[in-house]
Amino acid sequence: MPQQAEPIVETPVGAVRGVRDRFGELYRAVPYAAAPTGAGRFAPPASHPGWSGVRDATAPSPTAPQPARDFGRLDMIPYFGPGWVRGEEYLTVDVRTPGADSGKRPVMVFVHGGGFVTGSTRAALYDGRPFARDGVVLVTVNYRVGIPGFLDLEGAPANRGLLDVLAALGWVQDTIAAFGGDPRNVTLFGQSAGATITGALLATPEAKGLFRRAIIQSGSGTGAFTPEQAHRVTAAAAWALGVPPTAEAFAEIPDERFLEILPDLVGIDLRTATATDPLVELSPFSLVLPVQPADALAEGPAGEVDLLIGTNTEEGHLYLVPQGKLESSTDDDVLAVAAKIDADPTAVVAAHRATRPGATPGELRSAVLGEGLFGAGTARMIEAHARLSGGRTHVYSFGHRSTALDGRLGATHTVELPFVFDIADEPWLHDDTGLLGPDPAPAGLAARVHGAWVAFATHGDPGWAAYDPRQPHAEALGG
Prior knowledge:
Elements: E1 8-11, E2 14-17, E3 19-21, E4 24-31, E5 54-56, H1 77-80, E6 92-97, E7 105-111, H2 129-133, E8 137-141, H3 146-150, H4 160-175, E9 181-191, H5 193-202, E10 213-217, H6 227-241, H7 247-250, H8 255-260, H9 262-265, E11 306-312, H10 325-328, H11 331-341, H12 345-355, H13 361-389, E12 393-398, H14 404-407, H15 417-420, H16 445-459, E13 475-477
Parallel strand pairs: 2-5, 7-8, 7-9, 9-10, 10-11, 11-12, 12-13
Antiparallel strand pairs: 1-2, 3-4, 4-6, 6-8
Helix pairs in contact: 11-12, 11-13
GO molecular function: hydrolase activity
Organism: Actinokineospora spheciospongiae
Family: Belongs to the 'GDXG' lipolytic enzyme family. Belongs to the type-B carboxylesterase/lipase family.
């Protein structure tokens, strides 16, 4: 009997039609919440009203309103995606599955990065075919970004983008069995902003029972803004728009105008008497929390969740090399960056110099950036989770150096993603401007990294020992 050419899945709110290929089945732009329009852009995600008939799920979703991002000679379109693809119904997921049957397979739910401002399920890096090939159901999530997603406003819930991810996890619990997944074996994983959201959900009471494991790739357990910091961004946005800082006033403003004022919000000094800027002025948006996630894990599901967590060895290079700043950096530049992340910048620079005695100013600047953005907050999360969970924390350090941009890009932020998704041999990653550079990917590294992620999602063991605070160890991947 011939296979059905176009597979159809019945979900609680309606049927969807996907496509089948040799890797399994793909369902795109499946709504997990109602379209956030008008005042709804600043409301919690609402249940989708459903549809009659069979909904086409073969075309990619619209995206959250977002600006274009430019990284000079480096092609970051595979990471950010195509930018703003207009359409109201963008609170959607893509589902890649070996088969929509009763398989009860491990489920992995991916939350993209992009500085809380950009990103979508359309990004080429998040190709789910290798996960389906290896018996995993992969769900990638769109969520609100920028002003609708993260600006703190009177009359609106905070962290609406995080609430979207929480709603998507609820959708997974209700629906993923119809796509061949096991709702009792869900791994939430994210990178950069998505990793910081993942860490925050570990400390969110409403997330209890929604996922069994988590993977944090280059996030920060201390990456949230304080309410005071968020207020500064809100005040600047309201001033730029000429309206009061309320959800009611912002609801009258079109998304195009929100994007127009984003440059006015970049570079605001968010240092306060009690906090430094965790994003070092690279983004005006983050989660807004009274307590950092690493210090609030006991409030959420963290104690019952296995955690795989790590960073790359040269995270800061992404913010210097494509812009030509690695070579041009001076000692004053290093001190200026350190002043944004610590009250004693001289001591910070001295500590980094002591561990890198031959480093250039550019290399020191990158190290300070990487530690401020990701390293320190990851270390706090590791220690906090290890204390709380008792042997359920696994740590990695990714060190493969990209040869992009004349061999200088290195083991920078985002460079582990092609290995996690096992697409490191794709030609578009290796052209003159590609993320991995002209040299071929190391033989076996993608299989090892991707295999570790799949093994962790399947049974909680990536293939190396759990973290022991008495003998700290991070598994070296690449490098």
